[in-house]
Design brief:
heterodimer; A: 341 residues; alpha/beta; 18% strand; globular; B: 63 residues; mainly alpha; 40% helix; 6% strand
């Protein structure tokens, strides 16, 4: 099978973070870890080209994946594989997006990353195989990657025993053994100690360790944030009312309250009549200012951050959360009050 | 609130309705503002409290 392999700028030997803005391109043959991968894949398969993109470019240009897959198809690709990306977040996200885009374009696809890579959630049901945590584990990661690629190339299903991780798209198929037989088998497997054995793995929500408490709120810088579709009247940023792909920020400097007519909610998941009659019902600025004046709150951050939480994908929501956390930490915020609708 | 718990929000202050998290249109304006103040006071207690799992703060804040 003709395979196109995706790596980032670092593994393509083009440089580190200084080259992370490099745009997408296709190179002939196997490059970097692709060389070892090619020999592990054996004679039946050939890496005809290597797709490369800088991690920053990939993270900020959603269309890079479809572009590269289209180029790969022009080179005759019959399958696309990406990684291994270990625990590198932007690289993992790029690998997952490339694999998902290839799948969408009708090509079998596979990505390789560590189960804790935040990019795993972007794979959208496309096969992902487990890699080690860092490039120190390159050798065994490539062995497992090549074995999984051969399974996918043969049109077979990759299973947890093969190192498959992440969400699995559910499809109908005829089982060889009846549900009763399989159920008894599962019970026996569980009784013999494997407590997690299942035919249907449930989605795995990641858990967040709660932050340490604020030592003294009367001395803290606190930010108001919301997913209530809260925008200045007229919605100048065109924030979506559902399936938001972005978030907005607006100044609260000099405001003692958020008045009807100055702010509104564009949330599409509930009636906004009450929010629009008094926007403090979504973003409680009037009372927060009062408490700031009284010294109950050290200081309010000068802007609010907001998006619309309505049918938002987990991947977008995770990205908003990471961007908000980075932003607010840089501003030395000690706590946030997030109003949720 | 059950959603907030399920997705793992660490500190949760329950409110009275999805369309108005920090309000209650049934109340007279003064009473609504007092209710909003109470919610923010609970939120401040929440961010000042150590938690290890999703925790609901619905008691009256100790001044």
């Amino acid at each position: 099978m003709k395979i196109v392999h995706y790596v980032n700028q670092f593994f393509a030997g083009m440089g580190g973070e200084d080259s992370a803005g490099t745009g997408p391109e296709l190179r002939d043959g196997a490059v970097g870890p692709g060389r070892k991968l090619a020999s592990l894949l054996g004679d039946e398969h050939e890496i005809v080209a290597t797709a490369v993109c800088g991690d920053d470019y990939a993270a900020s240009h959603a269309d890079f994946a479809a572009d590269l897959v289209a180029q790969a198809k022009e080179r005759g690709a019959e399958m696309v594989i990406a990684g291994p990306s270990f625990t590198s977040g932007r690289y993992g996200m790029a690998c997952a997006r490339i694999a998902a885009a290839a799948n969408e374009a009708g090509l079998p696809a596979l990505a390789s990353m560590h189960p804790e890579n935040p990019g795993l959630g972007e794979a959208a049901g496309t096969a992902v195989v487990e890699s080690g945590q860092t490039a120190h584990r390159m050798k065994d990661s490539l062995e497992r990657f090549a074995a999984a690629a051969r399974i996918i190339a043969a049109g077979e299903e990759l299973t947890a025993q093969d190192g498959r991780i992440g969400p699995i798209a559910r499809t109908n198929r005829l089982a060889q053994r009846s549900a009763a037989e399989r159920a008894v088998d599962l019970v026996l497997t569980r009784l013999s100690g494997d407590k997690d054995a299942t035919e249907i793995s449930l989605p795995d929500f990641d858990s967040v360790t709660p932050a340490a408490p604020v030592a003294d709120v009367t001395d803290a810088l606190i930010a108001l944030v919301t997913e209530g579709g809260f925008v200045p009247a007229g919605n100048p940023d065109r924030l979506e009312s559902a399936r938001a792909t972005k978030w907005v920020r607006h100044s609260l400097d000099g405001l003692d309250t958020v008045e009807s007519g100055s702010f509104e909610s564009v949330h599409g998941g509930f009636s906004t009549q009450w929010a629009n009659a008094d926007p403090n019902r979504i973003l409680p600025l009037d009372v927060a200012r009062e408490m700031e004046r009284e010294g109950a709150i050290g200081r309010l951050y000068g802007e609010y951050l907001g998006t619309t939480g309505n049918g938002t994908t987990v991947a977008d929501a995770r990205r908003f959360g990471m961007e908000w956390a980075a932003e607010l930490r840089q501003a030395n915020i000690q706590a946030i009050i997030l109003t949720a609708t | 609130m059950s959603i907030a718990k399920r997705v793992g929000a660490p500190r949760i202050v329950p409110t009275r309705g999805i369309p108005f998290p920090t309000g209650d249109p049934e109340l007279a304006p003064d009473a609504e503002r007092a209710w909003r103040r109470q919610l923010l006071e609970r939120a401040l207690v929440a961010v000042g409290t150590r938690v290890s799992e999703p925790t609901v703060f619905d008691g009256d804040p100790v001044q």
